[in-house]
Amino acid sequence: MSHGIGAAQDCSYRMGRKNRSATSLAMDSISTTSERRAKMKKLAIITALLAAFPALSASADDKIRAKLMGFQEVPVVSTEASATFEAVISPNGDAIDYDITYTGIQGTVTQSHMHVGQRSVNGGVVLWVCGTTGTPGPAGTPTCTSPNGHFAGTWMAGNVQTVATQQLGGDIGEVITAIRAGNAYMNVHSNLSPGGEIRGQIRANRRDRD
Fold first, then answer.
1. Contact 193, 138 (CB under 8 A)
2. Which residues pair with 100 in a beta bridge?
3. pLDDT at 49 (0 to 100)
4. Mean pLDDT of all residues in 122-133
5. What gap in Å lies between CA 124 and CA 111, rounded to an integer?
6. Contact at 8 Å (CB) between 168 and 116?
7. DSSP 23
8. What does the radius of gyration of the chain's CA atoms come to, in whole angstroms?
């Protein structure tokens, strides 16, 4: 009789172990599945972030700016005037949306442009901001105001001027290449400083040190 009870207890013990083993395996399977899902979710997030970084980088590169002052002119001009220039290059590189504000020009503003030229070197005019009767600029160029002014608009291929001495053929792509290389600047000219009263080299926002 005791032998029969022992056999029954042993059988029950073995069944219990099997049930616990099955439960443990099931729990392990659930845990593994959850871990896999968590890993896949993390991987998806990382992939999305990595995909976003190039777009963010491109966006930063396409935003440009300049701070204009007399001490950047060639030769240097002593003036309290200043200006800020901000612009965005279109994703396909066929347009530049710009905004420029100047204040305190000591002379009468005669014209304002973008020039192609490295720092401390004078270069030719490629894009007009504003002009006057004496220097009107291309058709449709706004009239400059004094001593303060604010202008905003969009430059496209038709606005680009040819500079034969620098072999610039009026191509907006060439202008954008020059900008990204740090070889373009903004200039505000006045009757007291015909060569320019304030000037600022154009840089990408993230690299701006002016």
1. no
2. 85, 151
3. 55
4. 97
5. 14
6. yes
7. H
8. 34
Predicted TM-score (pTM) of the model is 0.71
Domain residue ranges in the chain = 63-205
- Element (DSSP H or E) covering residue 169: strand 168-169
Tokens of 97: 């949306």
Average pLDDT over the chain, rounded to whole?
84
84-120 pLDDT tens trace: 999 999 999 999 999 999 999 999 999 999 999 999 9
Structure tokens at 20: 């616990």
Tell which residue, 179, 187, 174, has the closest CA to residue 122.
187
Question: Which residue from 207, 105, 164 is spatially nearest to 129, judged by alpha carbons?
Answer: 105
- CATH fold of 63-205 reads Immunoglobulin-like (2.60.40)
Give me the amino acid identity at 48: A
Residue 82, token pair as written in the block: 């200043």
User: What does the alpha-carbon distance between residue 192 and residue 77 come to, in Å, rounded to a whole number?
Assistant: 10
